[in-house]
Amino acid sequence: MSGRVVIRELRTPEEFFETTHVSKAAWGFAERAVSPATDLVAATHAGGLTAAAFDGKEMLGFVHGIPRTNKGEPCQHSHLLAVRPDAQGRGLSTRLKLFQRAWCLERGIRLVTWTYDPFLLKNAKLNVGRLRGTVRTLLPDFYGHIGGIYAGLPTDRFEINWRLDDPLVVRAARGEAPPPDGYADVPAVTRSGAIPYDVPRVLLPFIADAPRVYRTDPRRSLAARTRFRKLATALFARGYVVTGVTVREGEPAYVLDRTRKNSLRIRPWPALP
Ligand SMILES: CC(C)(COP(=O)(O)OP(=O)(O)OC[C@H]1O[C@@H](n2cnc3c(N)ncnc32)[C@H](O)[C@@H]1OP(=O)(O)O)[C@@H](O)C(=O)NCCC(=O)NCCS
């Protein structure tokens, strides 16, 4: 990279087509289909956003969001975020998300949502730790069967709510570091019989190194998925919200804080395979 990376909206059909190459490089696509450039063009035309990080003419990563509403409030659902492997770890995804935030705020959009696999620690650190998105919904088997390393595994997803004008999000956008990790004494929830009602803060552990476990141990992966779904759904129903992510003695865990309002968006569980 030359160091002069520019983030801007896409301008030409060729640039939209280039997103498919970046997607293939970022995801590998053993387990999901690439989103066609024509879909991105249509969604952008309909009020969505497709913006990319360019080093000269070279596209290093991109973000794509589609318009949605939430009880009448205009918002954006961020469908794709990808950075080429050779450009990862240099803050580009953060810059792309902050570009998306500024773009949305300029248009009166104050909520951005997206989904991700809750067992991916890197994504959790970006979405919850760095950007300060929160989660109050688990979407069971969101994409259905997608094969590859997810073969036989329900595609459960956390839905991020990124409240763009939340004071914590504003501070994160300014580059202020999250508060130091102070979760040593927070109790961990590991059994559905032990879901608390009145503890202000709990930890919800999840498996470490999930992509490797998916590849090597499908049984353990499914058991972990099933247990996590039960616990997360029960905690959300009791008004807990994911506000952080931490790693304690090598085990990653979400930090959940109790709010007064219960989640209203729990979907019924489909049958597990
Ligand atoms: C997830 C992805 C977009 C991150 O892109 P990136 O440009 O490498 O990310 P950044 O350098 O901006 O890092 C952003 C944050 O992610 C987390 N992160 C990034 N790489 C990480 C790693 N290897 N391990 C742990 N956390 C990591 C960190 O919290 C980091 O913030 P910090 O450096 O301030 O602590 C990229 O890895 C990717 O394209 N993955 C495949 C596609 C994908 O999963 N997209 C969905 C994203 S929700």
Please explain how this structure is put together.
This protein is α+β, with helices and mostly antiparallel strands and 273 residues long. 30% of the residues lie in helices and 28% in strands. The protein has helices at residues 13-27, 37-45, 92-106, 121-130, 167-173, 210-216, 218-237, and strands at 5-9, 49-55, 58-70, 73-83, 111-116, 134-139, 157-163, 201-205, 240-248, 251-258. The strands form 2 sheets. The protein has a 7-stranded mixed β-sheet, sandwiched between helices. The protein is globular. The chain starts with a strand and ends in a 15-residue tail after the last strand. The model is unreliable at 262-273 (pLDDT under 50).
Keywords:
273 residues, alpha+beta, 3-stranded antiparallel beta sheet, binds coenzyme A
What percent of residues adopt helix (DSSP H or I)? Answer: 25-40%
Poorly predicted sequence stretches spanning 5 or more consecutive residues: 262-273
Instruction: Determine Rg (CA atoms, Å).
Output: 19 Å
Which ligands accompany this protein?
A: coenzyme A
Cα distance, first to last residue? 45 Å
Strand fraction equals: 25-35%
Judged by helices, strands and strand pairing, the structural class is alpha+beta
Strand order in the sheet with the most strands: 1-2-3-4-5-7-6
Order of helices and strands: EHHEEEHEHEEHEHHEE
Task: Please tally the β strands and state the result.
Answer: 10
Shape: globular
Mean pLDDT across the residues is 91
**What oligomeric state do these chains adopt?**
single chain
The main β sheet shows up as: 7 strands, mixed
Number of helices: 7
